[in-house]
Design the sequence.
């Protein structure tokens, strides 16, 4: 860049300010509001009484320990499933790699609470598995009961976060490290424990902290499994049945935020100041080791077992969506096709709502994400890193907290020019989804922009293009793969979200599909249609995921092309 | 490029404007009823009244009460439609209901001793509901369990781990069931039975619907449910049965208009429709299976449908809604802090007592018997005695607004005391029962 460039332009500052104002209004203020109420009396004076009240209730202490226990156990179990799978694909000659890639995505396309109700039918007290066990051996396994059930369901839903992160991390390790270790005589588990895993630690920590946060904050799964002695359900129950004024609900919110933020900050702190860098990147194919025959058996056995487990909620939902009656039997005994037309007739509105809210939210996400990425990487506008930090912090904001914060902050706010209150309009969904998906979109946009070589922009400007035209014609088109990936990630994660959706739904006609499924699942003849709606959601999300994978691949191709072009200059 | 941007902006603006342009007449209904009921009424009413859109807001009863209380004055919903009459009492006391005119001249004024419509005119009976037991026939057969007839049957050890119920703080209908038992058996005996039944429960579910759902799919053997859940489950083809025990009350499920309703006129129209002959006949839909309030409508009832006006159900309890309303929050709080949140410990105590009792059966061991009796007393005596439950000052504590720090602290301390005391009692009961069992050798 030439030295004569001013620090920043007026336009850049205006964009930064607008984004800042948006983030402050819809992220910072609602969360601060929640924190403020937890620490004050009705007259506004500061107090710690609500916190004392919280810790005096042994129920709350128990909920706190339960939430912590479930989150930690889920991380441990997810690690057990994910790390061997990642290691297998990255380091061994192995034909199951495609299978494992599928494994990585499948659980994420179904909301955890939907999976929970399907898994009741398969693993519950009188589920398929236990009926077989009871018949054959005379005992049953309490897999789906109480905290066990929550841990089981959450593990199967969230382990891909660890799998994906560790796989990427392994791929980026310099294989010379392992070769040296092997030359020095290390092998097997020792090689993994002393060399490979420590080097892959950044990826593992990133994935594990994400799993911890997600599980700690999850509302839908415990509710569906009738587990109420956990923090998120307690916050929801207090605020919905006692009222939005109940201070304990806010105290719970503050604790949820504190833990999520410290989990994230902790993982960042842990990774800071340690050197994980290796000289070369990338695994060389020749290093892939062969599995001995019995190792192969073990590996394939493990993968097939995990695959079966992971597929079980999908299978359960599919069966349920075609079943008329499924009661105390291995499989449904009467089948029907009528749930699908019924759902499409009655709930097309919800499908449309999901497309509208999540589409708009994803659009805002990538617009804001691209703008922040540009501000951070290409300008010197003061406060640009603050924007980045605020968005990243949103990752640790539980849906329940944001939902309660919105209800409280915008209680009496009306949308300009209409008589609708903001909290009872559909706009609130778009806002909430945008804020909570922004971190995903921002990461994609940041990555995309960092791979666009700055010389391309400089060339355009040397040839006389204005800054704005450069962004329009050069930067955005080159980033488009990353932007699209960010859009799709935001879209699919918003489509399966339930925590804030339950809290913010003020009219059934405004509800998105995730709420529709929840509602259907609460009625006698609704399990079939609910399952059908879930299958439709999964299909929409799966198509979205496929597109996003496709775009990421073509983006990679694009960028190589861009780099070659840049190099040719 | 510019043109394309403009087109995108315009279509976005169109999207944003669309819902506003569609603004039309509507009526907003807060209800705890399942989708089968709301969807059926929505469709029928909209067909009859073109131009009025029915907006359903589905919430569990207590959450619905909280929602109406907290909705801003300019944005109140219009109609409140749930089973539990005591929820209406709570709303009426807080001046959150409007008086409505009664179109239902043919409905009887009383069912048993219970007025079908609110004497003060704040809410009207829209259907009748009884409470009973529902069970999964396959589950019962597989586990070799006898069919229950009465609440008291569920206190028997044979049903240990096979029962399910919800919590009164989460479900208005469960609150009614609990009150019915308390009023039918008396406070102390009622709580003893409830504690014993809860000790037999496999789960205390988060929503009342969790019970019939679990019974339908065979997770639970027997559930305590409102009648239409059982009847509708049976009508939908599930292998379930339903009975009204003799300690039951027939109570109206009600409908009322919210004070300050934005669409008061449409609200009255909707209420009138649900009470018309046509609206009443909709209740016979197998997916709904509720009891109409108009006796004349029963001529069209499907075969085998219970009729509270012909004596097919014989309720023994005359439900006292004033009493129920007076202790509404207290009953919920006691239930939650000694049962729902301490369920694991209660189940452990029940199991230990059952085991000891089985070992002692047929043996004469006065010392062990005494220990066992002490264990039973510890586990199955309510934390709040009958005298205290009538104490006005004690009850008043729960009626005040929640955010007064001093009051909140008092309640919190009390709830904490109940919780820890219950846990201690259950642990002690396990200990005593184990001692008794050891003596039986």
Sequence:
């Amino acid at each position: 860049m030439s030295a004569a460039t001013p620090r920043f332009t007026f336009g850049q500052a205006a964009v930064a300010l607008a984004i800042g104002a948006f983030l402050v209004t819809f992220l910072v203020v609602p969360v601060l509001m929640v924190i403020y109420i937890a620490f004050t009396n009705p007259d506004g004076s500061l107090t710690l009484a609500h916190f004392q009240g919280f810790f005096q209730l042994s129920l709350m202490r128990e909920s706190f320990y339960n939430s912590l226990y479930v989150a930690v156990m889920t991380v441990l179990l997810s690690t057990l499933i994910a790390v061997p799978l990642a290691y297998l694909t990255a380091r061994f000659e192995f034909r199951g790699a495609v299978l494992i890639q599928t494994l990585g995505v499948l659980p994420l396309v179904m909301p955890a609470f939907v999976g929970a109700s399907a898994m009741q039918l398969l693993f519950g007290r009188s589920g398929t598995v236990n009926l077989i066990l009871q018949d054959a051996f005379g005992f049953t396994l309490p897999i789906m009961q109480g905290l066990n059930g929550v841990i089981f369901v959450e593990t199967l839903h969230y382990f891909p976060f660890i799998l994906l992160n560790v796989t990427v991390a392994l791929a980026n390790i310099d294989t010379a490290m392992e070769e040296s270790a092997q030359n020095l005589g290390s092998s097997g588990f020792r090689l993994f424990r002393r060399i490979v895993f420590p080097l892959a630690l950044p990826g593992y920590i990133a994935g594990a902290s994400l799993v911890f946060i997600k599980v700690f904050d999850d509302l839908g799964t415990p509710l569906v499994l009738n587990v109420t002695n956990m923090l998120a359900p307690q916050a929801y129950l207090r605020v919905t049945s006692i009222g939005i004024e109940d201070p304990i609900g806010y105290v719970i919110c503050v604790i949820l935020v504190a833990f999520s933020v410290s989990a994230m900050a902790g993982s960042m702190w842990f990774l800071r100041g340690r050197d994980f860098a290796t000289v070369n990147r990338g695994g060389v194919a020749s290093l892939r080791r062969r599995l001995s025959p019995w190792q192969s058996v073990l590996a394939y056995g493990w993968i097939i077992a995990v695959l079966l487990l992971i597929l079980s909620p999908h299978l359960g939902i599919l069966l349920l969506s075609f079943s008329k009656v499924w009661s105390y039997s291995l499989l449904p005994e009467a089948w029907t096709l009528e749930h699908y037309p019924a759902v499409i007739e009655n709930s097309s509105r919800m499908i449309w709502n999901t497309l509208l809210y999540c589409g708009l939210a994803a659009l805002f996400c990538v617009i804001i994400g691209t703008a922040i990425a540009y501000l951070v990487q290409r300008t010197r506008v003061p406060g640009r890193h603050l924007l980045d930090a605020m968005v990243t912090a949103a990752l640790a904001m539980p849906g329940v907290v944001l939902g309660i914060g919105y209800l409280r902050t915008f209680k009496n706010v009306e949308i300009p020019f209409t008589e609708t209150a903001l909290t009872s309009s559909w706009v609130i969904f778009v806002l909430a989804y945008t804020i909570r998906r922004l971190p995903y979109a921002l990461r994609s946009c940041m990555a995309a922009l960092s791979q666009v070589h700055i010389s391309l922009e400089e060339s355009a400007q040397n040839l006389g293009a204005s800054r704005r035209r450069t962004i329009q014609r050069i930067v955005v088109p080159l980033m488009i793969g990353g932007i699209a990936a960010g859009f799709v990630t935001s879209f699919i994660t918003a489509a399966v979200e339930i925590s804030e959706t339950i809290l913010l739904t003020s009219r059934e006609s405004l509800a998105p599909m995730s709420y529709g499924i929840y509602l259907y699942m609460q009625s006698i003849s609704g399990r079939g249609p609910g399952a059908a709606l879930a299958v439709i959601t999964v299909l929409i999300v799966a198509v979205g995921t496929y597109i996003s994978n496709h775009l990421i691949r073509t983006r990679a191709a694009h960028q190589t092309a861009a780099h070659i072009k840049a190099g040719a200059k | 490029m510019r043109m394309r941007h403009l087109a995108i902006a315009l279509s976005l603006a169109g999207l944003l404007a669309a819902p506003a342009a569609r603004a039309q007449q509507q009526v907003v209904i807060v209800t705890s009823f399942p989708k089968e009921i709301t969807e059926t009424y929505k469709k029928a009413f909209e067909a009859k009244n073109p131009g009025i859109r029915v907006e359903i807001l589905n919430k569990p009863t207590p959450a619905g009460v909280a929602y109406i209380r907290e909705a801003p004055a300019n944005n109140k919903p219009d109609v409140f439609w749930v089973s539990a009459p005591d929820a209406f009492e709570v709303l009426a006391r807080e001046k959150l209901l409007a008086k409505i005119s009664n179109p239902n001249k043919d409905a009887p004024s009383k069912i048993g001793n219970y007025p079908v419509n609110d004497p003060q005119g704040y809410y009207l009976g829209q259907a009748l509901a009884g409470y009973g037991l529902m069970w999964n026939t396959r589950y019962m057969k597989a586990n070799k369990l006898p069919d229950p007839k009465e609440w008291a049957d569920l206190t028997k050890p044979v049903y240990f781990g096979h029962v399910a119920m919800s919590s009164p703080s989460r479900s208005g209908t469960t609150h009614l069931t609990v009150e019915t038992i308390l009023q039918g058996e008396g406070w102390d005996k009622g709580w003893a039975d409830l504690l014993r039944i809860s000790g037999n429960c496999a789960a205390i579910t988060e929503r009342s619907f969790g019970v019939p759902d679990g019974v339908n799919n065979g997770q639970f053997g027997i559930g305590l449910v409102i009648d239409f859940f059982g009847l509708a489950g049976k009508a939908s083809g599930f292998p379930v049965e339903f009975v009204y025990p003799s300690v039951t009350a027939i109570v109206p499920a009600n409908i009322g208009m919210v004070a300050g309703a934005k669409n008061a006129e449409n609200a009255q129209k909707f209420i009138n429709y649900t009470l018309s002959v046509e609206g009443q006949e909709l209740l016979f839909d197998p997916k709904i299976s509720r009891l109409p309030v108009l006796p004349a409508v029963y001529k069209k009832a499907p075969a085998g449908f219970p009729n509270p006006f012909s004596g097919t159900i014989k309720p023994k309890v005359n439900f006292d809604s004033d009493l129920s309303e007076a202790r509404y929050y207290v009953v919920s709080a006691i239930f939650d802090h000694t049962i729902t949140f301490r369920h694991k410990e209660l189940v452990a105590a029940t199991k230990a007592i059952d085991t000891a009792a089985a070992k002692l059966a047929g043996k004469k061991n006065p010392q062990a018997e005494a220990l066992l009796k002490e264990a039973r007393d510890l586990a199955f005596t309510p934390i709040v005695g009958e005298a205290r439950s009538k104490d006005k000052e004690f009850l008043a504590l729960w009626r005040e607004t929640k955010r007064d720090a001093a009051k909140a602290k008092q309640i919190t301390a009390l709830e904490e005391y109940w919780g820890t005391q219950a846990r201690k009692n259950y642990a002690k009961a396990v200990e005593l029962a184990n001692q008794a069992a050891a003596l039986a050798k």
